[in-house]
């Protein structure tokens, strides 16, 4: 049985949800599932905007057939050749033998890499600035390289002023019937997953996202249709503001995230004492994370949200405790910038992680590492409480 929703009088959502997948890209936990959005435009010509993941092929094919209601599919527009959206290209091209596949040259090359598919005479190659007229609807193609693959094209439909934004403005999380941002409490129920999705999937490419936002600012956009998560049809300024902050590596909140690695609880104790000291110093938004027990994708999202980050790490095999090492390298890989960092090291015979953490952080852009660092020798001692309060006061002062 099909399960579609009307987006406008002439455009239909024909996607679906996967609530069984544990790890998106076999990397990121998605306890709330994920949606794969796809859209059909019904006009003099019909167009299908991208396909979906193989996990929902059966539903998707029913949705498309029901929406077309016996009409031919004239165009399959492929804006992004990642398999979570393109696994059904072959199936669609077989089922609808008169369909023309519309994509750019790089996408076509990737299709050839993924599929054994003879598309001779069945493609229309487009590039930035080209248009595809469907009747009353016209798609204008906008290159969006690295958002989040190199071949990505967004499509702007000018009669209904809709931006088909591909992964941009997407989110983890299955849709629960509510398709539009104004049908959900986005700030309460979706923002954390949208931030985690953006920062981990696209976070590295802030410059490219800025470039797309600049292009988008020249368009009259009334609706944003992404390939994951809710459709935006109101309060667009809210999500555009988030994207501006995330893509410029500007913290959303004046807040402190304390992220610690701890083998036996002693570095954890130092983190907790610092958190209490920060509260005493008047800091209201403090969150403490055990790196070993928090998925790195959540830590990355928090690092993008917070202005101040404390990293606490014991020595391990003469180097950094492995989960801390992974986190710092992930922060660097995702281009995190413009943060104030404080460091806590712990070691029984070699407390050297301040130096090791600093060496990684100093390779990142515009990171301020506070001069005051805390060295713990196995466990925090009463005599160090004053020094911890001093570090907390310094962080609190830097927050203002
Ligand atoms: Fe949701 Fe880049 O694919």
Structure report:
With 400 residues, the protein is an alpha/beta fold. It is built from 13 helices and 23 strands. 34% of the residues lie in helices and 24% in strands. The strands form five sheets. The protein has a seven-stranded mixed sheet. Strands 17, 18, 19, 20, 21, 22 and 23 form a seven-stranded mixed sheet that branches. A hairpin with a 4-residue loop joins strand 14 and strand 15. The longest helix is centred in the C-terminal third of the chain and has 15 residues. It starts with a strand and ends with a helix. The model has no long low-confidence stretch (mean pLDDT 97). It binds MU-OXO-diiron (FEO). The site of MU-OXO-diiron has 9 residues, from helix 2.
Secondary structure layout plus pairing:
Layout: E1 5-6, E2 11-13, E3 16-18, E4 23-24, E5 28-29, E6 34-36, E7 39-42, E8 46-49, H1 57-68, E9 75-77, H2 83-86, H3 89-95, E10 100-103, H4 105-114, E11 123-125, E12 131-133, E13 138-143, E14 153-157, E15 162-166, H5 186-189, H6 191-202, H7 206-217, E16 223-226, H8 236-247, E17 253-260, H9 266-280, E18 286-290, H10 296-305, E19 306-316, E20 319-320, H11 322-333, E21 340-346, H12 353-361, E22 368-369, E23 374-376, H13 385-399
Parallel strand pairs: 8-9, 9-10, 10-11, 15-16, 17-18, 17-19, 19-21, 21-22, 21-23
Antiparallel strand pairs: 1-2, 2-7, 3-6, 4-5, 7-8, 12-13, 13-14, 14-15, 19-20
Helix pairs in contact: 6-10, 7-8, 9-13, 10-11
The protein binds MU-OXO-diiron.
Residues 80, 82, 84-85, 148-149, 167, 227-228 line the site of MU-OXO-diiron (FEO).
């Amino acid at each position: 049985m099909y399960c579609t929703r009307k987006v406008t009088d002439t455009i239909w959502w024909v996607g679906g949800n996967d609530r069984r997948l544990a790890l998106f890209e076999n990397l990121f936990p998605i306890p709330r599932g994920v949606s794969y959005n796809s859209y059909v435009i019904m006009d003099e010509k019909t167009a299908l905007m991208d396909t979906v993941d193989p996990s929902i092929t059966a539903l998707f094919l029913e949705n498309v057939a029901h929406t077309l209601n016996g009409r031919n599919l004239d165009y399959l527009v492929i804006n992004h050749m990642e398999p979570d959206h393109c696994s059904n290209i072959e199936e669609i091209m077989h089922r609808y033998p008169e369909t023309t596949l519309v994509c750019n040259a790089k996408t076509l090359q990737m299709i050839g890499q993924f599929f054994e598919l003879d598309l001779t005479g069945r493609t229309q190659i487009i590039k930035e600035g080209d248009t595809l007229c469907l009747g009353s609807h016209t798609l204008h193609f906008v290159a969006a390289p690295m958002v989040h693959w190199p071949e990505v094209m967004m499509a702007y439909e000018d009669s209904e002023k809709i931006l088909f934004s591909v992964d941009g403005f997407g989110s983890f999380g299955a849709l629960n019937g509510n398709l539009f941002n104004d049908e959900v409490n986005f700030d309460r129920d979706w923002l954390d997953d949208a931030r985690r999705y953006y920062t981990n999937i696209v976070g590295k490419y802030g410059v490219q996202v800025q470039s797309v936002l600049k292009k988008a600012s020249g368009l009259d956009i009334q609706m944003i249709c992404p390939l994951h998560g809710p459709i935006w049809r109101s309060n667009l300024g809210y999500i555009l503001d988030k994207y501006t902050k995330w893509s410029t590596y500007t913290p959303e909140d004046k807040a402190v995230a304390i992220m610690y690695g701890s083998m036996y609880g002693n570095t954890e104790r130092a983190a907790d004492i610092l958190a209490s000291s920060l509260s005493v110093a008047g800091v209201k938004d403090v969150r403490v994370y055990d790196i070993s027990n928090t998925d790195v994708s959540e830590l990355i999202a928090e690092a993008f949200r917070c202005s101040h980050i404390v990293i606490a790490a014991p020595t391990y095999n003469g180097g950094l405790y492995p989960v801390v090492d992974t986190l710092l390298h992930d922060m660097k890989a995702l281009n995190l910038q413009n943060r104030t960092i404080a460091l806590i090291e712990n070691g029984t015979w070699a407390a050297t992680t301040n130096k090791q953490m600093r060496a990684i952080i100093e390779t990142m852009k515009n990171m301020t590492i506070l001069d005051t660092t805390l060295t713990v020798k196995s466990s925090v001692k009463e005599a160090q409480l004053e020094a911890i309060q001093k570090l907390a006061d310094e962080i609190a002062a830097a927050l203002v």
